[in-house]
Amino acid sequence: MWKKEVNVSTEQAMWKKDVTSSTQPPPSMATYTDAMNKFTKAATAFMDHVHLLSEARDAYQAAMTASTALRNSLETGDQALRSLMEQMEQVVSAHLGEPCPDKKKVEAIRTNGESTATG
Questions:
Q1: Angle, nearest 10°, between helix axes 51-96 and 103-111?
Q2: Is the pTM of this model over 0.85?
Q3: What is the mean pLDDT of each run of 10 residues along the chain (119 residues)?
Q4: Which of 19, 25, 83, 97 is 20 to 30 A from residue 13's alpha carbon, by CA?
């Protein structure tokens, strides 16, 4: 176990020598200046447009809120329509003494996902 740790340490030291002894010249002031200029230009361009991220997030949240409200409103309207249709069917059935002849058609339309029934 001890011997293995020494070997790992030796390999790391050899690797470091290989990396530092490469044939690349040491960095110059020109290299530093060029890198700093590129960084400054890219960072400035990014900061000029970062506000768009906040705007997009806010618009997404507004769209999701509106979508939820519309969905809830439509569901409430559908429930009201179903309730009214059931009441009408009960009144027709009570006055005529028989079920509404279009009841099967209305049920078929509901199961197909359509929101209106034409008689």
A1: 160
A2: no
A3: 53 57 79 96 94 95 98 97 95 79 56 50
A4: 25
